[in-house]
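Single Protein Entry

Contents — chain, fold
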Amino acid sequence: MKEKIEKALDEIRPGLQADGGNVEFVDVNDEGVVFLRMVGACSGCPSSQITLKMGIERKLMERIPEVTAVEAVP
């Protein structure tokens, strides 16, 4: 599943990079929770939680049925 997550994130990254940010894949647990680190401009952005939940989580769950949630790690 890690390869599927990385591939999906590669499709999402250009939008984040256009605003000076990015996302790093950290881990996925047995329950399908994906842990990501927001970096660059995204790490301190007040909208990063919205981006994480409404953008990244939604897209990962659409593309990878095994993903149940996405959480940010510092």
Remarks:
- The chain has one domain: 2-72.
- Residues 2-18 form the longest helix (17 residues).
- Residues 1 and 66 are 8 Å apart (CA to CA).
